[in-house]
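Worked example

This section walks through a single chain of length 161. The input is the sequence exactly as stored; nothing has been trimmed or padded.
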Amino acid sequence: MIRIGHGYDVHRLEAGDGFVVGGVTVACAFSVVAHSDGDVAIHALCDALLGAAGLGDIGRHFPDTDAQWQGADSRLFLRRVRALLAQDGWQVGNVDLTVVAQQPRLAAHIEAMRAVLAEDLEVAFSCVNVKATTTEGLGPVGRLEGIAAHAVALIVTGTDT
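Given that input, the structure is written out below as tokens.
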């Protein structure tokens, strides 16, 4: 059996010295405003995986009203989501993410993101795809007010769940 899920996340940007996206620290003139580390790629991916498994969303499992998640490393969220899926007999088939950011340019970080995500999901590097795009200066992302990410995930199981 297979299932597909979609996730989306967006965070506001402010002046700073960098942020984490796809589990990779990117040095730049911005920081992300968030309760946790604000990794939009991992947050979108968690939502895609949870959605595919019918397990709600990231806010249900890691609410921003809970002090224990203040400043949390989003890789922890992803590893816990993978474990939740495994408990229900699911494993990750493949994932595809698109990070939407006007700045900084992320192309130089894509392969590192893929490696981090593959490690945390316990899948082959080839099962993780990450892309980056801009909004050509349009909207809040184009005005450097925020960063966003979309994720699609395929999960598979050998049983009819």
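What to look for: The longest strand covers residues 2-15.
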